[in-house]
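Take just one protein record:
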Amino acid sequence: MNIIDGNFSDKKERSTTLEKLQSAIDGMHISEADADTEFALVVFNPDGYTTVGTSMSIMETVFMLESAKMGLMAGDPEDSTTLQ
């Protein structure tokens, strides 16, 4: 699982959500080998509202999110040179 987390604003002034999403997608370096890869996109706004867009079923999405949560709760995430 690759999780891309960061400030996706290329500008010093505040970027729109659309610009941040485009920057995140551009940073993923999707290749032809990734054609059948499932994806999940989670967008969180300052008001606490979260939107999830995915190509997976609801059951697969809940399992993935719970797995990520348990991984974070179980140990200290380590910085890496690769996406985590």
